[in-house]
Design brief:
Shape: globular
Number of helices: 18
Distance between the termini: 31 Å
Order of helices and strands: HHHHHEHHHEHHHHHHHHHH
Low-confidence stretches: none
Number of strands: 2
């Protein structure tokens, strides 16, 4: 952990981080009202938690595949398990107590399967998923800024083709909460989550003879946080988003919107694309009137603040050709895949499962398979060493 004198050199970025959080909150409030102002603060807390806990989906899946280490995967199961104990009752009975809560319940078919698979490859090449790209870019990673730019571009390109993809066969949407009832849906999901966590324990213990813990929290202000603390913090983010915005946490729809705004300025006739035909009013409004956008801005500002508090905000401008090339390729694949698969790990996988939607589980399956391929490609591109050649 950084000592006090080292952290004192981060006063300027700390100030900038706090100022950005305040600015986003004010602009969100002016353009979208109280709910969007609250959404920006939820995003800022998410950025702080993601950075301090180093809570990501990409590295956790990669460690499971490469090293047979499952602590990160178990933290994800904890995040989902605690969240559904709150989200499922809200989805089932929220309206009875005056709370509007709608889940992400979508059909799943060929396009979504390909999208999740492609996203899984891209997240490993790019070095982060949707939330990972935002918090690492906000935390000072210049490479992830490149990934984010490509993510936005890939999202825009996908919207030009999405109507063709959506014409492919798919299963109807299916909600376990709606079809099976609260009790059965909750019990069934908890059992599956426990089974995944237990399997990761068995694989890790068989490989290494022991299992790693989920870490310890050293400082709530300066970090690092344990994976348990990070998971529980993201439970707060997930439920707060559901209560404030009446829907689960999402990230990547904003990237398509940002790309559309750039396209309009550049003279690209996106109004002729079926995806945007009925959304041009959204494109023309301020970006601070879009809930997902202000949450994303909040994540980046919160991560900047967290990195500065930890004394680790130090952007590096020197990037190798490989860094840039893999960041661009990974970002493009994630952006394209996310539009086909109803979002990234947050909106598609986490958002789907905490909504009781079957598509969230299918996202996990195909996303993880893509991640396995992406993990292998990282070795081929020289991003990771080949563990088979090491003694």
């Amino acid at each position: 952990m950084q000592n006090v004198s080292e952290r004192s050199t981060q006063i300027l970025p700390i100030t900038i981080g706090m100022a950005l959080i305040l600015a986003v909150t004010i602009l969100a409030g002016v353009n979208g009202g109280t709910k969007l102002a609250l959404a920006s603060l939820i995003g800022a807390f998410a950025g702080l938690a993601l950075y301090h806990a180093s809570f990501g989906f990409t590295a956790a899946w990669r460690r499971m595949v490469r090293e047979k280490r499952g602590a990160g995967l178990r933290a994800q199961m904890l995040l989902i398990a605690v969240t559904i104990c709150i989200s499922y009752p809200l989805l089932a009975f929220g309206r009875d107590i005056g709370i509007t809560a709608n889940g992400f319940v979508f059909p799943f078919g060929i396009a979504a399967a390909i999208g999740a698979f492609v996203f899984g490859i891209g997240m490993q090449l790019g070095g982060g998923c949707g939330s990972g790209t935002l918090f690492t870019a906000g935390g000072g990673s210049t490479r992830m800024v490149v990934t984010l730019a490509a993510f936005i571009a890939g999202s825009l390109v996908a919207t030009a083709h999405l109507h063709h993809w959506n014409a492919l066969p798919r299963f109807s949407s299916f909600s376990t909460v709606r079809e099976f009832g609260l009790g059965v849906a909750l019990s069934m999901t908890l059992v599956i989550l426990a089974a995944i966590a237990a399997l990761s324990f068995l694989i890790e213990r068989r490989t290494h003879g022991e299992t790693q813990s989920l870490g310890q929290t050293q400082s709530w202000r300066y970090g690092p946080w344990s994976l348990v603390a990070g998971a529980l913090a993201l439970v707060v983010v997930s439920i707060a988003t559901l209560l404030v915005l009446s829907r689960p946490w999402g990230i990547t729809s904003a990237f398509a919107l940002w790309g559309a705004k750039v396209a309009v300025v550049s003279g690209v006739p996106i109004e002729t694309w079926p995806y945007w035909t009925n959304q041009m009013a959204r494109v023309e409004r301020s970006v601070f009137s879009d809930a997902t956008s202000v949450m994303n801005f909040g994540i980046m500002a919160g991560a900047l603040l967290a990195a500065s508090l930890a004394g680790k905000y130090a952007p590096k401008l020197s990037l190798s050709f490989r860094d840039v090339a893999t960041a661009i390729l990974g970002g493009l694949l994630m952006g394209y895949g996310a539009r086909l698969a109803y979002g990234c790990n947050i909106g598609g996988y986490l958002g789907g499962i905490v909504s009781g939607s079957l598509h969230g589980w299918w996202w996990l399956v195909f996303g993880f398979l893509g991640s396995i391929v992406g993990t292998r490609l990282r070795v081929w591109t020289g991003q990771d060493p080949d563990l088979r050649t090491q003694t």
